[in-house]
Amino acid sequence: EAGVTQFPSHSVIEKGQTVTLRCDPISGHDNLYWYRRVMGKEIKFLLHFVKESKQDESGMPNNRFLAERTGGTYSTLKVQPAELEDSGVYFCASSQDRLAGTHNEQFFGPGTRLTVL
Amino acid sequence: LAKTTQPISMDSYEGQEVNITCSHNNIATNDYITWYQQFPSQGPRFIIQGYKTKVTNEVASLFIPADRKSSTLSLPRVSLSDTAVYYCLVGEVGNTGKLIFGQGTTLQVKP
Predict the structure, then answer these.
(1) A91, B44: Cβ pair inside 8 Å?
(2) Which residues of chain B register pLDDT less than 70?
(3) How far is A84 from chain B (nearest CA, A)?
(4) From the list A45, A97, A102, which residue is nearest B99 (CB)?
(5) How far is CA A117 from the centre of its chain?
(6) CA torsion sign, A100 to B23 to A39 to A87?
(7) For chain B, how big is the Rg over CA atoms in Å?
(8) Is there a cis peptide before residue A8, judged by omega within 30 degrees of 0?
(9) Is A51 within 8 Å of chain B by CB?
């Protein structure tokens, strides 16, 4: 079974440019999450999709960030315009539907390292 | 989700047993304790979960005292490949919501 994949693995852009990150979850996983780690900080939650709907977007830092999951399959996270403080590693994770009495294990991708110059 | 506290870093040598303790004084009745492992340049990976007493799998053991205010992840006979960051999280089992990560414990295994 293929794991969660993310593209690109690295991205270097200049301040003010636009970048789009892509995440392909494990097939059949309705839940898709975005997280971010800024250098020296903890991994922080950004948002959670259930299929194509945003279940929780409380972690999105501002309106420069736009996440979509059309059709409930892959997801994109667009940063427009990018700022220096957006640099970090962006992780995507996916999980199955809630199963009573079991841990909702989240499977993480390898992350996209974004550098804004 | 309950806040957790772990040591920031630990060193060990190959073949030793490593115990990483996590404090979660405000753990709720419905919360489980879950540990994730993160290797360099990878995303976190689930390794073990428990509610009370002891849980063991092929990777690690998890010891939870009766008051559940702390837990200890035990890695038997570590190797260089166990060098990673280990995160302790607490939350309701079956909850499909966000994970809240602390700083984690960076374990460095030396030859």
Answers:
(1) yes
(2) 1-2, 93-94
(3) 21
(4) A45
(5) 21
(6) positive
(7) 13
(8) yes
(9) no
A101 touches chain B (CB under 8 A): yes
d(Cα B6, Cα A81) in Å, to the nearest integer?
37
- Give A35→chain B minimum CA distance, Å: 9
A25-63: pLDDT as tens digits: 999 999 999 999 998 899 999 999 999 999 999 999 999
Q: What is the dihedral of CA B47, B71, B16, B46, to 10 degrees?
A: 10
β-bridge pairing A19-24 and A10-13: unpaired
Cα–Cα distance, B64 to A19 (Å, whole number): 44
HSE, side-chain direction, 13 A CA sphere, residue A48? 17
Q: Are B89 and B62 in contact (CB under 8 A)?
A: no
Residue of A51, A28, A22, A36 whose CA lies nearest to A85 = A36
